């Protein structure tokens, strides 16, 4: 189009789109007024409306109202605006409308003639512009003082908009803009435009911020709105965000830059910046948890954005003398905040934000080990807090069957059964984090998780075991079983195996025969001899069980038998494998004596035994109580008692029971995810295969070292290895130390700790077995002083 234009064009402009000729921050805004806008709206979009101007920095925006009461914003872009960028903005708005339809972003109107959402128009001064029409959102600019909930709302909106844009791409998003806090170095030439008194302060900040591009390079990023500021957010009077407008700064940047832009804008206006920051970040992380590396740089990026604000304002005030008030409207708040940040070191600022985000613990947990042992001794200390190994391990990270220490060494975990699906399993961590960010309360309200967990556990049990009670530890589960048993039977005596372990509460400690002082047993507890092999390969049968139980019942005398408890794997006495007959007779004998039977699956359960999820099922018995714990939450404390309703009902006639944390939604989310992973990974079947391979390998080594290694026992993925204490070897504890030196973690069990206990996460495969056997081979080939055996 040539020649001067006095009004808007009618009909589509067929000539070229506007060509960016100068940088967008320098080119004056379009020279159009409301009459022009009114005519253009009618000509291009067929909308008749009254039009009034809105404030804008580099574009011209107008509010249009039709006689029907509809309202639109007419946006006339700066002629220096790249048409690709306008297309990108439109595409992004439409992307958000699809991916997050409930986010309040404006909807674009299409020109009736060709469905274009951006049309070329010419202004009276002959410059060409793109014009768009968008819907008006409810609400207004947030008022002062900021409403109480606004900070959290802003954080949440910023995160939700970032989430909604995650899959969005446009080639123009790669543009570099001066407002991106990472690009603060681009603005250094404008320090001279500042008041002389301010130059030194800003130069010091710029020096400090030099490293930002490097610090943010590898952080998560994608095309982001990058301007979720108080100018572009509409809110209701109570602070609820009702509109997110102006996608004009959209570009590819780090997510944390997008966050810092919003936060800097909030801090300019907030009464107390630290409270506002904490609320903003809480709102943000409800929708998008931040990575520790992101939390670390928030403070510096906020600072960078504030510096950018005052520098761009100084530079543009020189250029646009007619629009100084608008260009510099954020100066006052920015300077106030910059002055507050002046005295805070980068390290302190970073730590403050890490704390608010809840990521500072990650950094603390990874600090060096020096001093940690002393601090622990002084505040935990003594025999109440024993540590493994002569030189304790400072572990900082877990990953499947591997543990990493502070010095960076990786160890194969052959000991820990609690992380049954592997250390730090991401699915468990995510399930818990999501639930924790949604809701966590006790179990006195209806909640799906606890019900589903109970249903799934009961479905794995034999008929009759129909009722679950959720608690926080194996001890509590056994303790409750004991209370129910005494109530139900009216008896007061317990029978356990010798060298058993069942917990730490008074009743369960009494049932833990491996903790009794030599020669002492509580009056109300009797023991039977554990099913040690009678001779190589022969486990005691029903007759032995009957004889042993008869003596034990006799020992209880007038108290009578309330409950017999076994650890279904007899781990504490050295990992024993009872015959089916032996266990069946323990149960039958218990019933004949009027008692109830507890299968303690706290160690044995969750597929470790292979074949079945619960080891007692292998023996074909039906217990009255089953207790679960340890692996149940893969490291998160959750445990359960499963029993018959009739027993539970009898108990509640005289007593009540409520555990504050038992069965809370987060613990149950962990436990449900553990069950999912065990089922999907068919971990019990894998335990059978990998465990058999492990024991065969150890037996081969035992054959080569008959002076050091004796019997190898176990079922599924567990091995109890008898280690001889000879003049060459110092027994199982010595071997465990050597294994640690070789990068494998094991422990000991059995009377006198003479048994090496190998009880890894169930995610071991044959490769892990090979690593273990190699380390054991090396350990066995080493003399006590490091000399090789002949
Ligand atoms: N029963 C058995 C068989 C156990 O192995 C343990 C823990 N080692 C417990 C009960 C007690 O569980 P918690 O430590 O969770 O109280």
When the domains are counted, the total is 5
Bound molecules: 4'-deoxy-4'-aminopyridoxal-5'-phosphate
- Output the CATH class name of the largest domain: Alpha Beta
Shape annotation: elongated
How would you classify the quaternary structure? single chain
Q: Helix fraction? A: 25-40%
**Regions with pLDDT < 50 over 5+ consecutive residues?**
1-15, 786-790
> Which value, in Å, is the CA radius of gyration?
36 Å
**Total number of strands:** 25
What does this 3D model show about the protein?
With 790 residues, this protein is of the alpha+beta class. It folds into five domains: 1-136, Phosphorylase Kinase, domain 1 (2-Layer Sandwich), CATH 3.30.200; 141-365, Alpha-Beta Complex (Aminoglycoside 3'-phosphotransferase, Chain: A, domain 2), CATH 3.90.1200.10; 368-411, no CATH class; 474-628, Type I PLP-dependent aspartate aminotransferase-like (Major domain) (Aspartate Aminotransferase, domain 2, 3-Layer(aba) Sandwich), CATH 3.40.640.10; 683-780, Aspartate Aminotransferase, domain 1 (Alpha-Beta Complex), CATH 3.90.1150. The protein is 39% helix and 14% strand. The protein has 24 helices and 25 strands. Strands 14-20-19-18-17-15-16 form a seven-stranded mixed β-sheet, sandwiched between helices. A five-stranded antiparallel β-sheet has the order 1-2-3-5-4, with helices on one face. Strands 11-12-13-23 form a four-stranded mixed β-sheet. 4'-deoxy-4'-aminopyridoxal-5'-phosphate is lined by residues 473-475, 478, 501-504, 567, 600, 602-603, 629-630, 639.
């Amino acid at each position: 189009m040539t020649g001067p234009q006095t009004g808007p064009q009618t009909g589509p402009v067929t000539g070229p789109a506007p060509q960016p000729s100068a940088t967008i921050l320098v080119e004056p805004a379009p020279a159009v007024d409301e009459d022009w806008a009114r005519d253009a709206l009618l000509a291009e979009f067929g909308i008749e409306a009254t039009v009034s101007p809105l404030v804008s920095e580099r574009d011209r925006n107008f509010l249009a109202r039709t006689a029907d009461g509809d309202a639109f914003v007419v946006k006339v872009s700066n002629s220096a605006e790249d048409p690709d960028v306008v297309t990108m903005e439109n595409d992004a708005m439409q992307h958000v409308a699809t991916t997050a339809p409930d986010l309040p972003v404006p909807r674009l109107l299409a020109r009736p003639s060709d469905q274009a959402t951006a049309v070329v128009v010419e202004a009276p001064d002959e410059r060409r512009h793109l014009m768009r029409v968008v819907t008006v959102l409810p609400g207004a600019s947030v008022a002062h003082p900021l409403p109480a909930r606004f900070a959290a709302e802003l954080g949440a909106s910023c995160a939700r908009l970032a989430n909604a844009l995650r899959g969005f791409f446009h080639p123009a998003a790669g543009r570099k803009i001066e407002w991106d806090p990472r690009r603060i170095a681009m603005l250094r030439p404008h320090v001279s435009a500042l008041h002389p008194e301010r130059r030194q302060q800003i130069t010091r900040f710029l020096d400090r911020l030099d490293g930002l591009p490097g610090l943010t390079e590898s952080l998560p990023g994608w095309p982001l709105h990058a301007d979720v500021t108080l100018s572009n957010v509409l809110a209701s009077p109570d602070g609820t965000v009702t509109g997110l407008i102006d996608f004009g700064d959209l570009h590819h940047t780090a997510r944390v830059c997008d966050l810092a832009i919003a936060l800097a804008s909030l801090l300019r206006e907030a009464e107390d910046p630290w409270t506002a920051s904490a609320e903003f970040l809480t709102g943000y992380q409800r929708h998008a948890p931040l990575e520790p590396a992101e939390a670390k740089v928030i403070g510096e990026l906020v600072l960078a954005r504030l510096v950018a604000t005052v520098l761009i304002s100084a530079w543009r005030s020189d250029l646009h003398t007619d629009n100084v008030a608008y260009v510099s409207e954020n100066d006052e708040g920015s300077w106030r905040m910059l002055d507050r940040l002046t005295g805070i070191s980068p390290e302190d600022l970073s730590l403050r934000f890490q704390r608010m985000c809840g990521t500072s613990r990650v950094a603390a947990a990874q600090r060096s080990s020096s001093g940690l042992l002393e601090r622990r001794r002084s505040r935990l200390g003594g025999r109440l807090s024993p540590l493994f190994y002569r030189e304790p391990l400072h572990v900082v990270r877990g990953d499947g069957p591997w543990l990493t220490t502070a010095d960076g060494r990786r160890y194969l975990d052959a000991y820990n059964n609690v992380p049954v699906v592997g250390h730090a399993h991401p699915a468990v961590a995510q399930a818990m984090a999501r639930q924790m960010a949604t809701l966590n309360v006790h179990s006195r309200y209806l909640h799906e998780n606890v019900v589903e967990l109970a249903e799934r556990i009961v479905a794995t049990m034999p008929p009759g075991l129909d009722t679950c009670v959720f608690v926080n530890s194996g001890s509590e589960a056994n303790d409750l079983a004991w209370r129910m048993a005494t109530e139900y039977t009216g008896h007061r005596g317990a029978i356990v195996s010798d060298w058993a372990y069942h917990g730490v509460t008074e009743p369960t400690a009494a049932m833990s025969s491996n903790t009794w002082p030599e020669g002492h047993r509580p009056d109300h507890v009797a023991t039977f001899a554990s099913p040690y092999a009678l001779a190589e390969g022969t486990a005691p049968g029903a007759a032995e069980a009957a004889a042993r139980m008869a003596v034990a019942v006799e020992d209880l005398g007038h108290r009578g038998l309330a409950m017999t408890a076994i650890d279904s794997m007899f781990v504490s006495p050295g990992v024993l494998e009872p015959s089916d007959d032996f266990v069946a007779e323990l149960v039958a004998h218990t019933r004949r004596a009027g008692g109830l039977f507890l299968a303690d699956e706290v160690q044995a359960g969750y597929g470790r035994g292979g074949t079945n999820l619960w080891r007692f099922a292998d023996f074909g018995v039906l217990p009255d109580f089953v207790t679960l714990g340890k692996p149940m939450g893969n490291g998160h404390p959750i445990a359960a008692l499963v029993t018959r309703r009739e027993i539970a009902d009898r108990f509640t006639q005289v007593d009540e029971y409520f555990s504050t944390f038992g069965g809370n939604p987060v613990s149950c989310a962990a436990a449900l995810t553990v069950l999912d992973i065990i089922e999907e990974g068919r971990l019990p079947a894998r335990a059978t295969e990998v465990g058999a391979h492990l024991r065969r390998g150890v037996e081969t080594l035992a054959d080569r070292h008959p002076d050091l290694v004796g019997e190898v026992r176990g079922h599924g993925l567990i091995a109890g290895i008898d280690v001889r204490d000879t003049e060459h070897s110092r027994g199982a504890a010595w071997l465990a130390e050597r294994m640690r030196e070789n990068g494998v973690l094991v422990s000991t069990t059995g009377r006198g700790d003479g048994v090496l206990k190998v009880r890894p996460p169930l995610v071991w495969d044959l490769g892990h077995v090979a690593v273990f056997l190699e380390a054991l081979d090396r350990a066995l080939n080493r003399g006590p002083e490091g000399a090789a055996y002949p």
